[in-house]
Amino acid sequence: MKTVADIFKRKGLHNITVAPDAFVLDALKLMAEKNIGSVVVMDNDKYCGLLTERDYARKVILHGKSSAELQVGEIMSEYLPRVTPGHSLDECMEIMTNHNIRYLPVFENEDYIGIVSIIDVVKETMLAQKDTIEHLQNYLHS
To answer: Is CATH 3.10.580.10 the right assignment for the domain spanning 4-141?
Structure first.
């Protein structure tokens, strides 16, 4: 069974972060530049939350607020469910589905180590299925 650790082995730990006092507009520019849908909010080395495109759409635009004046900490998602590197991909999919979220922060003990997205989970699942199919084909042809 594939786990969160397998995702990190494939993609690495490339965490893009912003401070909670950064302006939302600056965080959005960073997300656009890096072609990502979320950014981790860290205060020094302490995990605070996650800013997502959904946060922006629902908490800024729909309320007529200005992203140039709001700070990330005012709209970030806090208290998201957490997973560990040992969580299975099935467990991650269930958590994401049950909470209607697309990102999960990953902690080892109490230390933040990374983020996984629904795209990461789907991609890793597809790779595992492809490996299984190849093994079955090789078995049938041997």
So the answer is: yes
